[in-house]
Design goal:
The protein is built from four helices and five strands. The protein is an alpha+beta fold and 151 residues long. The chain has a domain of 93 residues: Arc Repressor Mutant, subunit A (Orthogonal Bundle). The termini are far apart.
């Protein structure tokens, strides 16, 4: 597998959210499904089939690794498998996040040039409001601390 994170870009939305879900630490499949749904504000709702197809591909690409939760699982049946980002997976996620930030910055600058400084920007926080122009909520996930970008 290539070791250059840029060779994996761009990521699909579902792949991005799966990797993002694993950024804080290892999770089992059902926790990934729930987290992806929450992170995407219910826009991405993966089926188990889609999740495990993507997980298999990410394992093959060495972007994630599998752990057996032997001893940790007290429920009957098969032991759960947990997944975590590899170092390469973390670098790919960082590269994709940076790529998307650059795209938003370029789009913002282009819209400013076109005289569209006061366009509606969807607020991604739980309030579901829309922020206008410079009035982006500080707790909004789209704000990302880009104080230098003037909308």
């Amino acid at each position: 597998m290539p070791n250059d994170p840029l060779s994996y870009l761009p990521l699909t939305e579902s792949t991005f959210y799966i990797l993002l879900s694993l950024a804080p630490g290892k999770k089992h499949g059902y926790a990934i499904l729930k987290d992806v749904k929450d992170l995407s504000k219910e826009r991405v709702n993966l089926s188990t089939s889609t999740l495990y197809t993507a997980v298999g591909r990410l394992l093959d690409q060495d972007l994630i690794e599998r752990f057996s939760d032997d001893g940790e699982d007290v429920s009957p049946g098969l032991p759960r498998k947990s997944y975590a980002l590899t170092e390469l997976g973390r670098r790919v996620l960082d590269a994709e996040t940076s790529r998307m930030q650059k795209m938003v910055k370029e789009a913002t600058l282009r819209l400013r040039e076109a005289g569209r400084e006061k366009f509606l920007w969807p607020c991604s926080c739980t309030c579901s409001r829309k922020a206008i122009g410079k009035n982006i909520a500080k707790n909004c996930g789209l704000y990302l601390g880009w104080r230098s970008i003037m909308l």
